[in-house]
Write a structure and sequence with these properties.
The complex is a heterodimer of chains A (298) and B (500). Chain A has 14 helices and no strands. Chain A is mainly α and 298 residues long. Chain A folds into two domains: 62 residues, no CATH class; 213 residues, MetI-like fold (Orthogonal Bundle), CATH 1.10.3720.10. In chain A, helix 9 runs antiparallel to helix 10 and helix 13 packs across helix 14. The two termini of chain A are 21 Å apart. Chain B is of the alpha+beta class. Chain B has three domains: 132 residues, Dipeptide-binding Protein, Domain 1 (Dipeptide-binding Protein, domain 1); 93 residues, D-Maltodextrin-Binding Protein, domain 2 (3-Layer(aba) Sandwich), CATH 3.40.190.10; 209 residues, Roll (Dipeptide-binding Protein, domain 3). In chain B, the strands form four sheets. In chain B, strands 1, 8, 9, 10, 11, 12, 13, 14, 15, 16 and 17 form an eleven-stranded mixed sheet that branches. In chain B, helix 8 packs antiparallel against helix 10 and helix 9 packs antiparallel against helix 11. The longest helix of chain B has 20 residues. The chains are: A mainly alpha (298), B alpha+beta (500). The interface between A and B is large, with 61 and 53 residues.
């Protein structure tokens, strides 16, 4: 599944980029380049070959592990991604960890105390969280916690403190959707007969929820967590920009603006690869969470 | 089940802790011997010949030296050059200072100079800078002779470009590929974390005692978002913000611990008319529109006031600059339109791209309405816009241009008839403009050149292919405790002199 998806993505992006106006050779040479130099470079780079030939050449290089050099910096695409990707990974892991830590308990309590004050407040907060654009949340957090209180740096990547605000900004949005999913699947599960059975045989309320209900309610939540994780790994462009975080999302957007095709393709490849891998891991996790799924395959 | 979850979370926690274990745990408050400067975008290359953008230039200027440099008044002054002479109009003999050491301890010789200038002519990003150079020869250990293709007056100006930095031949030919560059400049390279920061340390062995680095360490921090840059300045995380958003100028001015520095830049914004198309082939129409535009309103609305009115096709800091004859006078504009045969005005379109230029175009639209000209605005995506302009599809356009320090570097691309289909936006084809441009390139005497360009300004404004709009200010915000912050028309200057 992974390989055909990747091939499809690369194919699509390659052709979409080629449709955009602007010329890579004149971009590399900059203003004031002579027409002859541009033609010469176009020729060297094979930009006048049919698109399908260029695509074939790119794929052939890629198969041998060569992602090419950036048009704008001349540095190797793979090297640049290796520098940037760990930063995005750090941010994503922390953000998802934070949001799981917050959202699962809130979701569970909201479900068990449906329509209570806690539930209503929780769901309103989730709605607010999902509706706030991240660049706005980010700026508000910066103004409160960096500018006024001075607890955290306002941006950059230096030490664990600089991670807190961007991770929270990202966590707020994903917390909202994970909470809502946990709540609704939990609501479904606690209405099942086996929960009543458990209650009837005298299992404590706490145990019913943690041992009998939660495990069964987790599958949809884990799916959402996986999706959020995958999306964030592709780089949270706005959050990375507001917090000057040197992640892969900013790299991709800046490369698109510079029409830096090899770099854009490199970012897309790493994005789809990590998305596919996360999905694979989630599929494997299902088996651990729900033994019935594992049983189907053994 | 529960245990598995706990174990899973523990693994997560542990993994994330491990990730940070390698992280730098230094405190945020920098000591006062170190300064940090916010850049709006990352540098593209540490190789002085591998880039052609102002961010990378800031770093290259600190790591490397060129034969000449500019002072804040835009005059050429020697940097590595000790003395120079011109045996003939095409020949320049330049002697470099003796005893200049590269950061690896080797001494700079004319071999390095020849190698660097030859390399500069080969490297794609900067090869156009020295396009007038025919050959570079080594005369003796410290002297080179450069021959140009023709008599080329602004030649010394080309030698101030970062792309003509002198690099050590032995290092440049090594496999390091400028990953940790070795230059001769007032600062040495420490690290570049892609997308985050560039760190430089003072070079104590710098050859020029008068221009020694003042701070022990300089960190360039990449902060792409304008508001975030201002906040970083307010919290003290950075000491200098190079491109202050115009919106935040008032804020910095009001803060007692911050200082605002402003100076007109070399960036001029203009409204250009396609002189090949009706009605702009009529000089009276072009002159009329020059009277019709309220430039002060444009500066107030589009720039939050951070600019100065432009009265000719270049910024005032250039050699031979002369003001044009126009002022904001709608009555005069109407009278000229009647004279031109358009008593009821006409319909036209303005092509442009981007938010700021859209606001500019809207004010021009309103101004034209006052004199009976109905203008529609056509907004295009940048790539499409440039493509259309190069093909001459537009009737008129709004655009800006950041100039290199010599007038020729801007005027020839924009007004020479040979550049129609290139950067000659108004597609003007005028033999007198062509001959003035040619004369300006060949006249070696400074006063003589100033006179030629003065005549050029007078004539081009009379022909009126452009309505010059405004010159942007460079806006720099800095901590009030900093000394030595200087601006040239190209922005923050002599960064090595900034210190607490």
């Amino acid at each position: 599944m992974l390989i055909p998806v990747m091939l499809g993505v690369i194919f699509l992006v390659f052709f979409i980029i080629s449709l955009t106006p602007g010329d890579a050779a004149s971009m590399i040479l900059g203003d004031g380049a002579t027409e002859e130099r541009i033609i010469e470079l176009r020729d060297d780079m094979g930009l006048d070959d049919p698109l399908i030939v260029q695509y074939g050449r790119y794929m052939w290089d890629l198969l041998r592990g060569n992602m090419g050099d950036s048009y704008s910096t001349g540095r190797s695409v793979a090297g640049e991604i290796v520098q940037r990707f760990p930063n995005t990974f750090k941010l994503t892991v922390t953000a998802i960890f934070l949001s799981v830590l917050i959202s699962i308990p809130i979701g569970v309590i909201s479900a068990t105390k449906q329509y209570s004050l806690f539930d209503n407040i929780g769901m309103i907060l989730a709605l607010v969280g999902i509706s706030m654009p991240s660049f706005w949340t980010g700026l508000i957090l910066i103004i409160i916690f960096a500018l006024n209180l001075g607890w955290f740096p306002s941006g950059g990547m230096k030490g664990i403190m600089s991670l807190v605000l961007p991770a929270f900004t990202l966590a707020i949005a994903s917390t909202a959707s994970i909470t809502r999913t946990t709540r609704s699947s939990m609501l479904e599960v606690i209405r099942q007969d086996y929960i009543n059975t458990a209650k009837a045989k005298g299992v404590s309320r706490r145990k019913v929820i943690t041992r009998h209900a939660l495990g069964n309610a987790l599958i949809p939540a884990v799916t959402v967590i996986g999706l959020e994780f995958g999306i964030l790994l592709g780089g949270a462009v706005l959050t990375e920009t507001v917090f000057s975080w040197p992640g892969i999302g900013r790299l991709m957007v800046e490369s698109i603006q510079r029409k830096d095709t090899p770099m854009v393709l490199g970012c897309v490849i790493i994005f789809s690869l990590s998305f596919s891998i996360v999905n694979l891991i989630i599929d494997i996790l299902y088996a651990y969470i729900d033994p019935r799924i594992k049983a189907n395959y053994t | 089940m529960k245990n598995k979850l706990v174990a899973l979370s523990l693994i997560f926690l542990f993994a994330s802790l491990l990730l940070f274990a390698g992280g730098n745990q230094e405190g945020q408050q920098v000591a006062k011997t170190d300064i940090s400067i916010a850049l709006s975008a990352d540098i593209t290359s540490l190789d002085p010949m591998g880039h052609n953008d102002t961010k990378s230039e800031r770093v290259s200027f600190l790591l490397f030296n060129r034969l000449f440099r500019l002072n804040t008044d835009f005059e050429v002054v020697p940097d590595l050059a000790e003395s120079w002479s011109q045996p003939s109009p095409e020949e320049w003999v330049i002697k470099i200072k003796e005893g200049v050491l590269f950061h690896d301890g080797t001494e700079m010789t004319s071999e390095d100079v020849k190698y660097s200038l030859d390399r500069s002519r080969e490297m794609p990003k900067v090869q156009q800078v020295l396009s007038e150079v025919n050959s570079v020869e080594v005369v003796d250990t410290y002297t080179v002779k450069i021959t140009t293709n023709s008599a080329f007056a602004p030649f010394l100006y080309t030698l101030v470009h970062a792309g003509t930095s002198i690099v050590p031949k032995a290092y440049a030919e090594s496999d390091d590929k400028f990953a940790s560059p070795v230059g001769s400049g007032p600062y040495t390279f420490v690290e570049w974390v892609s997308g985050d920061r560039v760190v430089l340390a003072k070079n104590d062995a710098y050859f020029d005692a008068d221009n020694m680095g003042q701070s022990a360490q300089i960190t360039f921090k990449v902060i792409p978002e304008g508001t975030s840059r201002t906040i970083a300045l307010e919290t003290g995380e950075v000491d200098v913000v190079d491109e202050l958003p115009t919106m935040d100028i008032g804020k910095v001015e009001d803060a007692s611990d911050l200082t605002l520095y402003q100076k007109p830049s070399t960036r001029i914004n203009f409204f250009a008319m396609n002189t090949e198309k009706e009605p702009f082939d009529n000089i009276l129409v072009r002159q009329a529109l020059n009277y019709a535009v309220d430039k002060e309103a444009i500066i107030a609305v589009a720039l939050d006031g951070a600019g100065v009115q432009a009265d000719s096709v270049l910024a005032p800091s250039f050699l031979g600059y002369k003001k044009g004859p126009y002022s904001y006078d709608p009555e005069q504009a109407k009278a000229l339109l009647v004279k031109a045969g358009y008593p009821d005005g006409f319909e036209m379109s303005i092509m442009t791209s981007g938010d700021e230029r859209k606001r500019i175009a809207e004010i021009i639209q309103a101004n034209f309405m006052d004199i009976g000209v109905t203008a529609s605005i056509e907004m295009l995506e940048w790539g499409t816009f440039i493509d259309s302009v190069l093909k001459g599809l537009e009737q008129s356009l709004v655009l800006g241009w950041t100039s290199n320090p010599d007038p020729d570097a801007t005027l020839t691309p924009i007004f020479f008839s040979g550049n129609i289909g290139g950067m000659n936006f108004s597609r003007i084809n005028d033999p007198k403009l062509d001959s003035l441009l040619k004369a300006g390139r060949e006249e070696l005497d400074l006063a003589g050149r100033a006179e030629i360009y003065g005549e050029f300004h007078t004539y081009v404004m009379e022909q009126a292919p452009f309505v010059p709009l405004f010159v942007n200010n460079n806006n720099v915000g800095a901590n009030a405790g900093l000394k030595g912050v200087e601006l040239s028309p190209q922005g923050l200057w002599n960064i090595e002199k900034i210190h607490y």
